[in-house]
Amino acid sequence: MNRKKKVIETQKAKIKKKNAKMHRSNKPRYISKAERAKMEAEALQAEQSAEQNQTVTAAESEKPTE
């Protein structure tokens, strides 16, 4: 009886582990405070460069062409 119980328990444990691997969490990855600050700084820099590009293109379009 004990041997049969042990075999069944090991099989159940293997199935449980397999199921746990299949169902990963949908929780988003943790981003540290320093990484968030860095990403925010990069976003601001990209936004500023986009604004500068718009002003440059607007200035070029207003130039009279000969």
From TrEMBL:
Amino acid composition bias (Basic residues), ranges on this chain: 13-27
Basic and acidic residues composition bias: residue spans: 32-41
Region (Disordered): 1-66
Biased composition (Low complexity): 42-54
Domain of life: Bacteria
Protein name: DUF2986 domain-containing protein
Phylogenetic placement of the source organism: Bacteria, Pseudomonadati, Pseudomonadota, Gammaproteobacteria, Vibrionales
